[in-house]
Amino acid sequence: ESKLVQLRKRFEHASSAEYPEPDYQTLLRFLRARDFSIDKATAMLQESLQWRKEHRIDDILGEYKTPAVVEKYFPGGWHHHDKDGRPLYILRLGTMDVKGLLKSVGEDELLKLTLHICEEGLKLMKEATKLFGKPVWNWCLLVDLDGLSMRHLWRPGVKALLRIIETVEKNYPETMGRVLIVRAPRVFPVLWTIVSTFIDENTRSKFLFFGGPDCMHAEDGIEQYIDTDKIPSFLGGSCNPSIPTVVEAIPAKLYTRCFLSACHCTLIHEGGLVPKHLYKSESIEEPNGTIQAHDHHGLYKAVDLKPGQLFELLICNTDPKSVLTWDFEVLKNDTLFAVYHTEKEIEQSGTDDFSSVFDGPDFKEGTNYKKIEQSVKCRPKEGVQGSHEMASTGTYVLQWMCPPSCDGPAQLMYFHEILSSANYKGSMTSLQSGFSSNSLQSR
């Protein structure tokens, strides 16, 4: 409370011509975001207030006009509230045509849409505070990933998402109370490893993942967080907030009807592919088709392999049911990829670049080690993303090999990460690994 009062005094004498004096909720959010450091919170808030002035954010609720393409094809909207009284926003990301929306309205317009949603969230939190007679500091996000595929990993789409995350993190800190990720498919861990790096650690701790189809009734399901009669019908609940994709004449205001309208559901479009005749730009493509387009913070490493040479990554797992995820792209010549598992201790000493850790006399495939992902042949400019639930402890081995028949060395860029089992709820079967060659062709 003392820090809050001190921070308030720093902004009391700010010129009203510069920016409006922030309210206590805003001050507290920025204090929390900077661990109650007054100097750091002051700097962060000053930058945000200046940003709001430059981009006229205070006028966005009254001036923003939803583009027709967004009205018809953006699958998101406000929907009642969770059990803690937080406004609930539902996003059906799995049915979103990321490429179609980007090419139709552009990255700037999608960012503006996100900022409009965030401003609505701030308004709804204040209304919820009055409605429930208690402080409601943040809102809840439910993301349905049913239908998510490699097309959602389109490089410019990931780039736009990271820009949106960065902007929201800077200017709307501590507004996210809980994020429910439901019906997560096998490709989700790859997307998560890419974007989670850019999400504040405190925000990441608010994510809960539900991999199975029955995210409602499963043990520790979403019924813990949302009343049953508020859970959408497409997740097994009795509330029907969706409208068919063929409906085109619904006014935009109906998509964001305030949850305070008693028992009415917000209408949330089901998404679908944006017709190409609505595209305004055909120039948003992957630079040279390479993975550098989202090689943020040096996540990816490069490897050169001579014909017949192997490259193996050894992952020692001590967290049963954690998820091993990978993303790599072959830049030059063919490459073979496979994943192995063993519970036997591995000694790497004595191996050379053309031998596997399993080539010793103590290893026999099918007896004390096994191939858990069958070999896949990747050609130049092809990418592979996949994940595997590590059901047991032991050593998991990611193996790449340049076939001996190649006429020159192979080159690839790779990234892998282990996702802890702690935040995953329900069934993990839909997160089992899978390959998607030609992922860069998923236009």
Automatic annotation (TrEMBL):
InterPro entries: CRAL-TRIO_dom (IPR001251), CRAL-TRIO_dom_sf (IPR036865), CRAL/TRIO_N_dom (IPR011074), CRAL/TRIO_N_dom_sf (IPR036273), GOLD_dom_sf (IPR036598), SEC14/CRAL-TRIO_domain (IPR051064). Keywords: Mitochondrion. It is found in: Mitochondrion. Pfam families: CRAL_TRIO, CRAL_TRIO_N. One of its GO terms (cellular component) is mitochondrion. Residues 66-243 form the CRAL-TRIO domain. Gene3D superfamilies: CRAL-TRIO lipid binding domain, GOLD domain. This is Protein real-time. It comes from Anopheles epiroticus.
